[in-house]
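Let's practice the habit of predicting before peeking. Look at the sequence and jot down your guess about where helices and strands might fall. Then scroll down.
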Amino acid sequence: MVNPDNLKLKKATDVNQSVWRKNYNKIAPDSTKWPKLLEKVYGIMGSWKGFQPSDIKNLKSPTLLIFGDGDLGTPEHQIAMFRLLGGGNWGNLYELPNEQLAILPGTSHVTMVDQTDLLIPIVTKFLKTPDSK
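Done guessing? Here is the structure:
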């Protein structure tokens, strides 16, 4: 995860008020283990190397990539993934692939679940797209 010097980590109180915490409290057998979960998640974020380009290129199913413009990956990385899937062709002259990319404005990874007004039409249209692979 890249963190430019000008960005500050959110306070733990912000994470503790997140929709993820609220949902965790609803389903966790022991909601007091939230700090341990956070510790594990932050540990994974610091050590996970991500998918290899070959992992992405080898996907055979139609793929809809949805990111927020404030998501973990940069827009450049999101576009690179889209291109690995065959996306990014000029749709006026070439058939559009079954791969689609949506970058939601004003959205982080966590707040994406609050963007149903944007997500529902995008996902619904994608699911109605015929699979031509």
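How did you do? The mean pLDDT is 82.
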